[in-house]
Every structure is written in C-alpha cells, then in structure tokens.
Amino acid sequence: APGFARSQHIVPARNCHVAPASLPLKVLAFAEPAACARHCVNRMPENSLESVLVIGAGTIGLSIVQALRIMGAEKITVIEPDSSKRALALKLGAAEVYAPGELESSVRFTGAIDVVAAQTTLNDACTRVYAGGTVVCMGVPAGPREIPLPSMQRFERDLLNSGMYIPEDFDVVIKWLAEGLFETSELVTDLYPVSEAARAFERAQQNDSIKVMLQFADE
Questions:
Q1: Of 73, 151, 181, 204, which is most buried with the most CB atoms under 10 A?
Q2: Within-domain flag for 68
Q3: Whole-angstrom Cα distance, residue 157 to residue 20?
Q4: Domain that holds residue 106
Q5: Residue 76 falls inside a structural domain
Q6: Closest C-alpha to 31, from 66, 78, 79, 1
Q7: How far apart are the first and last CA of the chain?
Q8: Residue pLDDT, tens place only, 16-68
Q9: Is this prediction's pTM over 0.90?
Q10: Number of C-beta neighbours around residue 172 at 10 A
Q11: Buried (b) or exposed (e) across 120-138, using 16+ Cβ within 10 A?
Q12: How does pLDDT run across 101-142, given as a tens digit for each residue?
C-alpha cells in the first residue's frame, strides 16, 4: 500500500517533531491538516486578514477557518454547499456562512482562499477581493484554470498558491493542539477500528464526511 498504510515505515529523524506525551494521538493526527492551514494563512499579507472569504469547508477549509481565527483574522466568511459543514464553520470561527450562489455579487473581501480550485470557485475568489487584495489557491485543481486577468491586473489583486507546509508549520500547530486552540473533536465524523480500514476509506470518499479516523487497539 502507498504512504503510511503499511505495517512499517521508516522516516528520517529530521522529519520528526516533538509533541507532548499527554496529547492524544487522535488529536495529534490533526497536525497535518492544521499545518496545511497555518502555512496557507501565513502566506497572506497581514492587511488581507481584515475580512477573509473561504470557499469550501471540508477538513482543510474548516482547518483554515480555525487558523484564520487563531492568527487574528477580523471577519471570516464561508461558502459551502453542505448545511452541516456551514453550521460547523460558524461554530469554529466564521462570522457568516452561505451556500453557493447566496452571497450577493457586490460583496468584497480583503482576502479570499479557494479550497476547491474549480473554475467557478477560482473566478469567485478572484473577483471578490478589493483592489490590492490577496487570493490564495489552496485547493488542488484537476487541470488548467483560467484567471480573470484583466481585473486582476487592473486592480492589482495578487494570486498566491499554497501547496503544503514547512517544518515550522508543524511546530506551531502542535502548540495550538497542546494549548487547545485548535478544535479537533468536531472535525471527526467517523472513528473505525483498524480492522475495518477498508470501510473507513469508503466512508472518507462521501461528501458529508469530514475526517474519518482509524483507531488502534493500544491508543
């Protein structure tokens, strides 16, 4: 099996990060999505954090909402089709939530983060920031995307991209988790014993799941 879905995996010591022994593994497992979120928000200029639009509220989107809250964003708005995920976004720090198509076209933000990277969501992100605002593409596009370059150029809107994380991000978010700043229990929709891993992978593909976790007997 690829990745860590194997009985043994050896990594270089430099890839390891120190975490408090008291931090449960089911909480520490969120260091990776939290590190993605912290890296994404950390790429944005401080003046873009006044009002931020987040498009998409899955595991990464909801992690970004929390990272924005922790890192001082003044107002967070979320666009997400699933009503339960919208409700969770409000609980985790968003001020306003909308289903796609509900937000008036005239509403603008100082920053926008596209966690979907579809053509429609990228267009929305690029046209919803004020002049001089910042757009970050966090989602993974399935292919080439067009950018509304005339308005991007005219109004000096910046397009950044966030791919993953660096070691510093892990160190920071481990502290968030240890201090209880980053909520994890609300993000776990399902917990399976490792003997039912195949079912867990199937469940993780369903749109209403957020984070599906495997529980090992000795945890």
A1: 73
A2: yes
A3: 41
A4: 31-161
A5: yes
A6: 66
A7: 23
A8: 999 999 999 999 999 999 999 999 999 999 999 999 999 999 999 999 999 99
A9: yes
A10: 19
A11: ebbebbbbbbeeebbbbbb
A12: 999 999 999 999 999 999 999 999 999 999 999 999 999 999
HSE (side-chain half, CA atoms, 13 Å) at 70: 24
What is the token pair recorded at 182? Answer: 């980053």
Judge whether 107 lies within some domain: yes
Beta strands in the chain (DSSP E): 51-55, 75-79, 96-98, 109-114, 129-137, 158-161, 188-193, 211-215
How many structural domains is the chain composed of?
Answer: 1
Q: To which residue do tokens 């966690």 refer? A: 115
Q: Which residues of 147-169 are buried (b: 16+ CB within 10 A; e: fewer)?
A: eeeeebeeeebebbebeebeeeb
pLDDT band with cut points at 50, 70 and 90 for residue 74: very high
The answer to whether residue 25 sits within a structural domain is: no
- If we measure between CA atoms, which residue out of 188, 156, 157 comes closest to residue 59? 188
